[in-house]
């Protein structure tokens, strides 16, 4: 593993830890007020039908966030010690897992913007953190593919 | 050479793992602490009980002067913790004394029971309306919101709600009988449908003279500020 990949894995683990703590905070604060000075809409978002998934009758989205960040964090810590897991490189798994998180965060952000018309700063923080995890892991996954591509052209025979 | 590089790396990783575990522990403790105090429980505000009250044309309870310059409409659910917080913070902001009793605000309660996430939302809304039939809506309203943390977490929330209402002086047996008879079932369902058709997804959703109000950590202060602004600006259309 290159030094850069190692730092990326460390950064992803720390970002996912922060995201996991953010989700844990929202989960423990369910049904209680949270500070919301930046955006002001935390109460509206947290008490809405969209605070669970599927809406109205599912599990708290904060719990899904906690599970997602824990998975990303675990994969990032694993990536510090090994290159591959099964058929894929670990950064591929990380990009896939955090990519799923980004899609889910995008759904929640769209709901905040167009359905609830209210913003929850803690939810936006989680969305930003998972996006950063994805950007780092996707970039590292792409970098890991480069040598194979570089080796592909056939050198002219002398 | 290779061994020394591996040794350096494992040493550095060892530091990282150690720092990571320490961060996770400290962060977890801080989060558990920040998530904080137990659910709030507000005292019943006696101020709201002696105010003029009545029903709007579409059948919702209001308190305050019918022709007050500012109308506050609150879409609420008796089992929603933020609605209880709003109630508590409005009492702390002396909202009723400052605005409702002073004839400046007509405060309208509209039911938006979030029945999918709050199992007693509909029953509590009906109980308040049944109490309202005897002119005691606001007593039931204040009691249910102030004692929410107790009855909402009880093994039998309905019995706990009736206990709280009985303690406030309402006839629990009659309330139970009329609940069983289906009173106000349709009215609450209609109110819920109206709110959902209006695109409202959460509680409390508050409007001041038709304009939505963003509520933050102290919703009572936020609503009081919105009312002040409305009073300073134009009167109710």
Summarize this entry quickly.
Helix content of chain A is 68%, strand content 5%. Chain A is mainly alpha-helical.
Describe the fold and architecture.
The complex is a heterodimer of chains A (158) and B (237). Chain A is mainly alpha-helical and 158 residues long. Chain A is 68% helix and 5% strand. Chain A has helices at residues 3-28, 42-46, 61-79, 90-116, 121-151; strands at 52-53, 59-60, 84-85, 88-89. In chain A, a hairpin with a 2-residue loop joins β3 and β4 (88-89). The longest helix of chain A is centred in the C-terminal third of the chain and has 31 residues, at 121-151. Chain A is elongated, with a radius of gyration of 19 Å. Mean pLDDT of chain B is 85; it is low at 38-47. In chain B, α4 runs antiparallel to α5 and α4 (121-133) crosses α9 (185-197). Chain B is globular, with a radius of gyration of 24 Å. In chain B, β5 and β6 form a beta hairpin. Chain B starts with a helix and ends in a 5-residue tail after the last helix. With 237 residues, chain B is of the alpha+beta class. At the A-B interface, α1 and α2 of A face α1 and α2 of B.
């Amino acid at each position: 593993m290159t030094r850069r990949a190692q730092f990326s894995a460390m950064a992803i683990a720390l970002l996912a830890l922060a995201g996991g703590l953010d989700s844990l905070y929202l989960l423990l604060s369910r049904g209680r007020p949270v500070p919301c000075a930046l955006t002001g809409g935390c109460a509206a978002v947290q008490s809405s039908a969209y605070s669970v998934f599927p809406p109205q009758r599912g599990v708290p989205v904060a719990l899904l966030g906690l599970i997602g960040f824990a998975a990303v964090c675990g994969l990032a810590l694993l990536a510090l010690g090994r290159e591959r897991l099964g058929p894929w490189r670990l950064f591929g798994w990380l990009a896939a897992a955090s990519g799923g998180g980004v899609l889910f965060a995008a759904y929640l952000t769209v709901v905040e913007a167009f359905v609830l018309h209210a913003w929850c700063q803690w939810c936006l923080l989680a969305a930003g953190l998972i996006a950063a995890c994805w950007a780092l892991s996707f970039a590292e996954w792409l970098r890991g593919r480069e040598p194979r591509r570089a080796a592909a052209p056939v050198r002219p025979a002398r | 050479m290779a061994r020394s590089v591996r040794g350096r790396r494992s040493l550095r990783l060892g530091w990282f793992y150690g720092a990571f575990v320490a961060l996770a522990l400290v962060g977890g403790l801080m989060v558990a602490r920040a998530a904080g105090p137990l659910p709030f429980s507000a005292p019943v505000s006696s101020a709201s009980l002696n105010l003029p009250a009545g029903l709007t044309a579409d059948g919702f309870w209001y308190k305050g002067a019918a022709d007050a310059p500012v109308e506050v409409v609150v879409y609420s659910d008796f089992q929603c913790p933020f609605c209880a917080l709003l109630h508590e913070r409005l009492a702390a902001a002396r909202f009723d004394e400052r605005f409702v009793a002073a004839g400046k605000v007509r405060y309208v309660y509209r039911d938006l029971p979030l029945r999918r996430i709050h199992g007693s939302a509909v029953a509590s809304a009906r109980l308040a309306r049944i109490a309202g039939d005897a002119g005691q809506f606001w007593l039931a309203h204040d009691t249910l919101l102030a004692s929410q943390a107790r009855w909402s977490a009880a093994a039998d929330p309905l019995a706990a709600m009736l206990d709280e209402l009985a303690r406030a002086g309402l006839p629990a047996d009659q309330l139970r009988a009329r609940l069983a008879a289906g009173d106000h079932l349709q009215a609450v369902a209609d109110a819920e449908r109206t709110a959902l058709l209006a695109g409202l997804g959460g509680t409390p959703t508050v409007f001041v003279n038709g304009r939505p109000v963003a509520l933050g950590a102290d919703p009572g202060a936020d609503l009081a500020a919105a009312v002040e602004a409305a009073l300073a600006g134009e009167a109710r259309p």
